[in-house]
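Forum: Protein Structure Q&A
Topic: Joint prediction for protein chains with partners

I've read a bunch of threads here and the consensus seems to be that you should model interacting components together rather than docking separate models afterwards. I'd like to see that in practice. Below is the full input, 226 residues plus whatever partners are listed. Could one of the regulars post the assembled result?
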Amino acid sequence: DTEVTQTPKHLVMGMTNKKSLKCEQHMGHRAMYWYKQKAKKPPELMFVYSYEKLSINESVPSRFSPECPNSSLLNLHLHALQPEDSALYLCASSRGSTVLAGEGNEQFFGPGTRLTVL
Amino acid sequence: KNEVEQSPQNLTAQEGEFITINCSYSVGISALHWLQQHPGGGIVSLFMLSSGKKKHGRLIATINIQEKHSSLHITASHPRDSAVYICAVRSSGSRLTFGEGTQLTVNP
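Posted by a regular:
Agreed with the consensus. Here's the joint model:
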């Protein structure tokens, strides 16, 4: 299984709602990532989890709260979002997050969740 | 100046044409990725390479570490190749630095 799955595919929420995005992989990868992508822009890294511990937080506002309950699952909890948070949220995973020689650390991306905040 | 520069930004081709997309970077890297993103979102990893050349079907990726340059070639292009192609480099740890992407449209 070389797939990263994300649910839901689409999400529409109001600014007062609380919702969660989910990501799952069964490749035995120990690093998982959240990216945010606005239209016609490259992905922007938000968070990196390594061995279920948060290793990188790219100064993301606290209305985004990541959680890694186990090595296969990554959640992104959303609360009190703003309309400008509307974007495609991509999850990715890789074998590890430390430097591996050469090409050992390819990231596999999920299909994304299209989020619209009203 | 971005650390990763792609050219062209937009490319329109006729079906069957040979296509080249270029990527230049300004930092030392451990690996370079070529990614494909179709409308609707999902990103597919096409290649990851740190030296030389890789081929997969009609796609060929090359990298010149000394010149800090990589190219993605598509032979016998097809309308289904229409997508955004993104170059990304990994310089340390797991962090990827992305180029702005090249929008490819292949007309029948």
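The mean pLDDT of chain A is 90.
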